[in-house]
Amino acid sequence: MALSRGIVILGSTGSIGESALKVVDHLNASGQARVRVAALAARSSAKRLLAQARRYKPRLVALSDPQAAAWLKARLKGPGAPRVLSGPQALEAAAVAPGASLVLTAVVGAAGLLPTLKAIRAGRTIALANKETLVAAGELVRREADRAKVRLLPVDSEHNAIFQCLAGLPEPGEVKRIILTASGGPFRQASLAQLKRVRAEQALKHPTWAMGPKITVDSATLMNKGLEVIEARWLFGVDFDRISVVVHPQSVIHSMVEAVDGSVLAQLGPADMRLPIQHAFTWPKRVAHGMLPLNLLTLSPLTFEAPDTRRFPCLALAYLAGRKGGTAPAVLNAANEAAVAAFLKGRLSFMGIPRLVARALKADPRAGEAKPGLQSILDADAWARRYVEGELDA
After folding, report:
1. How far apart are CA 72 and CA 49, in angstroms?
2. pLDDT tens sequence across 363-386
3. Number of compact structural domains in the chain
4. pTM for the structure as a whole
5. Does the residue 17 lie in any domain?
6. Is 280 inside any structural domain?
7. What is the domain range of residue 82?
8. Of 38, 47, 41, nearest in space to 74 by CA
């Protein structure tokens, strides 16, 4: 019998969301699964969401931007038209839409935290493509998921690779180290002097992956890998001393796990986000995909390098924040989001991103607070964004 599943996609108009809908098309067309889209949600991309709503016929669509939602509602009328929700809580309502057992969280940044928590508390399985949720509130989210007995299925290619490798090491004591691979981004071989002159259009040209602007800049600064280190800590219960990063420019090995006996398990695959998305959508089963398979005979030699935290200090800042714990990861994440937005608008230099993040971490007024609750995390997030804005205006 084919797998049958109802899903919600938060962030359906972004690159991950659109890839997820291609996976839905493939699974339904191939007959290997019946996937029903119960709800779609985005921030403000009303035209894209309109096309998706007409094609996939969800019962509910949501836009955080009220004006965009009003435009959409005027065009989704008549029998069978979905409910259109808007405002700050729209994504949270979509996360618990009736008829869905799995929620793909693919919105960008800390905006994914509250909807993900809402879905966890409603008992939904989480396909997590929003790393910032676990960065900002990893301990809290992990605690809520364990309490609700909810599975967190990683969709990031690196964490999905680790998840697959760990299936071969069922006992926690068998794992010695997690090894996250990084492409190195577009400036892997750039000098420090060259990095100081980087422009936004250069940072948005990733050599391997097609992603949204924020995550593409994060990849260029290696902050993306730093966020993934913190995410791995909470997904897999491994402390920071046992999480390593290695630069692997070919992006063929998506990540590795080293066992205590010296064996290293690796997951390889094409650089296509549809693969980890499909793995999450059909887990615990595996079904055939509709993509070109990995051809080992045509691959260039696979190379590995140590990351250079002098040229890319964001990686070291993430380790620092992760080890400090408390509100530090939330401050790191929010300050980085604000700094990246300023860089994309031409208000901040490329190397100004880690400088501002480091200042925010040092100035965090809640530093040292153990096991912060949700409100403390949200307050730290808001404070860090105000802090960065104040530094930009100074």
Report:
1. 8
2. 999 887 888 999 999 999 999 999
3. 1
4. 0.93
5. yes
6. no
7. 3-150
8. 47
